[in-house]
Specification:
672 residues, 7-stranded antiparallel beta sheet, 32% helix, globular
Length: 672
């Protein structure tokens, strides 16, 4: 949900963003799909503890196949998906596995559930957390120790509290999410692990333990610790201690993929102009492997699910009994480690609590461009699900509580009845204090990726529909909540909850909901909202544009042979040229951003052209200091008439406001 993804959530979830500007008398800006975009609305139901009815359960492979065949066929057609695969495990065995569509359209290679290898994205993190717990079992790691004790570089002491492995596992470390440069198209751009971890270190933007905020750097750091403590490279450790014991022969944590497995790797696809287009073959930075680089077939993922559901043990006809975790450790991993409130779902040891329709559910979703996946475990049912799609259009299908999860749970575990909650009679008078826009706590704070927020990314909306409820507005989700206790709300017709926190003055500062336990949200102040910033930018652009005709008219008047105007003072001429240069530079900056097309993401880097464009903003900001000085001189020395001086002052103020705008959105300078 992405967004609220990693995207979203979940990230949540990471998805494509584009920005265009038209510079005439007005400015238009748009961005495609926020980080947390969804495609399906939450149906009534969820994680209520009451016992559901007993319809058909997923125990009959034939019935399960018929259901999944229909579901996948519909999803693939509606969302333009070239290939997909599903595996379902039950009671320690593989119940069902099947491939759909094509792994390679050009070669006509169908998806094979046993051999076709998909990029599983952030589901990789579950392997990283499993590795961490293995080393905890061996006494080599302490979950409560400062992570600096295991590093050969230092996480800054931004806050008094140290970051621990528990903070990393629950995404409560306080790191911002930093994506830029984690994936490359040219192997020459790959950097040594330690070097990349230092140069791309995520800033600490919240004290550890204060707020949950999904960030990839948590798993990246944990994977580096696994490698240092074990004495093995991350990919080798995962191979020897998880893949090999479980017989996962069609899985790898290496990047690029090993030559012997490469022919089995699914091609990734986008859909444009009525046809599937192969997606470029990107490679993850070695440092980023623990966060999202595992590639595996769905039957190999079934082995991993079985091991977790069977308390760390796996066996089949070829493996007598492998154990990747001790029983107590596996159960510990599945227990709740963090929740902002006992009444809300929270985070286990790396798993998110995605309980649904009365069934306790642990899971994770993944995205590695352009593939999407989701893993769900129902420990009480000894049931596990893994679904993966090789096309960009599947983004909303792997989002928690929607897409595949929604369809599967509503079919096999229908929602229990929920008595609708009536809103308090006096709530209308108090609703306004909760209404507003909220930012995901781990959203980018220090890099220019922050600009995504201006167009809805990393944000959710709380609104007052006027019926005594609050509406949670994440795109694709529209649940209504009723206040049942101070700062505590329940879903009107479902089981989910939402809580707010306030500061000492009674101002609402944060919101949590168990629809997305990986994300806390922080309420924005008025000057952080899209409405204010867009109005400010528009006003500045209009004033910048106005200087061009004003300067032209003034020039022609002064050049007219019959003009009786006195020659302008040298200071007045300099003042006009400075303000004109500032306005032109700022307009060129915006035009450059428009031509740039897309803000950099995990797939991109900063080009030389983009660096030059950013430099225009810096130059304009420096000249703005001069414009401010000349504004004072213009009034002191009466350079022009009162109206002209007032206009010059207004344009200077707009230039100062634009400097603030650029600085707030991390566009002033080279902040990436």
């Amino acid at each position: 949900m992405s967004k609220v993804r990693e995207k979203e959530m979940n990230k949540l979830l990471i998805i494509k963003k584009s920005m265009t500007m038209v510079l005439t008398l007005v400015i238009m800006l748009s961005l495609v799909a926020p980080v947390m975009a969804q495609e399906n609305k939450v149906a009534p139901g969820g994680n209520a503890p009451t016992a559901p009815s007993q319809p058909q359960r997923p125990t009959d492979p034939a019935e399960l196949e018929a259901f999944l065949d229909e579901l996948l066929a519909r999803q693939m057609e509606e969302h333009h998906i070239a290939g997909a695969a599903v595996s379902v495990v039950k009671d320690g065995k593989l119940l069902f596995a099947k491939g759909y569509g094509y792994a390679d359209l050009e070669e006509g290679i169908p998806v094979d559930p046993e051999q076709t290898i998909f990029r599983i994205g952030s589901v990789t993190k579950l392997f990283t957390w499993t590795a961490v717990m293995q080393l905890v079992e061996q006494g080599k790691l302490d979950l409560d120790a400062d992570v600096n004790a295991y590093l050969d570089f230092r996480i800054p002491d931004t806050y008094p509290q140290p970051v621990t492995l528990k903070h990393l596992m629950t995404h409560t470390s306080g790191f911002e999410d930093r994506l830029l440069g984690s994936v490359v198209s040219d192997a020459n751009d790959l950097a040594p692990v330690r070097e990349w971890l230092i140069s791309h270190m995520s800033a600490r933007v919240h004290p550890p333990g204060e707020a949950v905020g999904y960030a990839n750097y948590n798993a990246v750091l944990a994977g580096y610790i696994v490698a240092r403590v074990s004495g093995q490279p991350y990919d080798q450790y995962i191979q020897e201690h998880i893949f090999d014991p479980l017989g996962m022969v069609h899985a790898t944590a290496q990047s690029p993929i090993p030559p012997d497995l490469r022919p089995l790797a699914s091609v990734g696809y986008t859909y444009a102009d009525g046809a599937f287009q192969p997606f470029p073959d990107y490679t993850g930075q070695p440092a980023g492997l623990p966060s999202g680089a595992v590639q595996a077939s769905v039957t190999d993922m079934a082995r991993f699910m079985i091991a977790h559901l069977e308390d760390g043990r796996y066996s089949d006809e070829n493996i007598a009994g492998a154990r990747i975790l001790e029983e107590s450790t596996a159960r510990q991993m599945h227990s709740t480690l963090y929740t902002p409130d006992p009444r809300l779902l929270g985070m286990a040891y790396g798993f998110a609590d995605l309980s649904d329709n009365g069934q306790r559910t642990l899971g994770h979703q993944g995205y590695f461009p352009p593939m999407h996946s989701q893993l769900l475990l129902l420990p009480d049912q000894h049931l596990g699900l893994f679904v993966t799609y090789n096309s960009a259009g599947a983004g909303g299908l792997t989002t928690q509580h929607t897409g595949f999860q929604r369809a599967f749970f509503d079919h096999y575990y229908p929602p229990p009845g929920v008595e609708p909650i009536q809103p308090p009679a006096d709530f209308a008078a108090r609703a306004g204090r909760f209404v507003g826009v909220y930012r995901v706590a781990s959203s980018p704070h220090t890099t220019l990726i922050k600009i995504i927020e201006l167009f809805g990314g990393y944000r959710v909306q709380i609104s007052d529909p006027g019926d005594g409820t609050l509406l949670l507005g994440v795109e694709g989700l529209e649940p209504r909540f009723v206040e049942v206790e101070p700062l505590y709300f329940r879903q009107v017709d479902g089981p989910f909850a939402m809580i707010f926190r306030e500061d000492s003055s009674g101002r609402i500062t944060q919101m949590y909901t168990d629809l997305m336990p990986q994300y806390a949200t922080v309420k924005l102040r008025w000057y952080e909202t899209t409405g204010f910033n867009m109005a400010l930018a528009l006003g500045c652009v209009l004033l910048f544009l106005s200087t061009i005709p004003v300067t032209a008219i003034s020039f022609m008047r002064n050049r007219h042979p019959n003009s009786d105007r006195k020659p302008a003072l040298r200071g007045a001429r300099v003042a006009r040229w400075i303000i004109l240069t500032i306005c032109v530079l700022n307009l060129l900056f915006l035009a450059g951003i428009a031509l740039w097309g897309e803000p950099p993401t995990e797939l991109g880097s900063i080009s030389l052209t983009a660096k030059i464009v950013l430099g225009l903003g810096v130059l304009a900001a420096v000249l703005t200091v001069g414009a401010l000085a000349y504004t004072v001189l213009a009034w002191k020395n009466s350079y022009w008439g009162s109206a002209a001086r007032a206009y010059y002052t207004l344009v200077t103020v707009s230039a100062i406001a634009f400097v603030w705008f650029l600085n707030y959105w991390n566009l002033l300078g080279w902040r990436y």
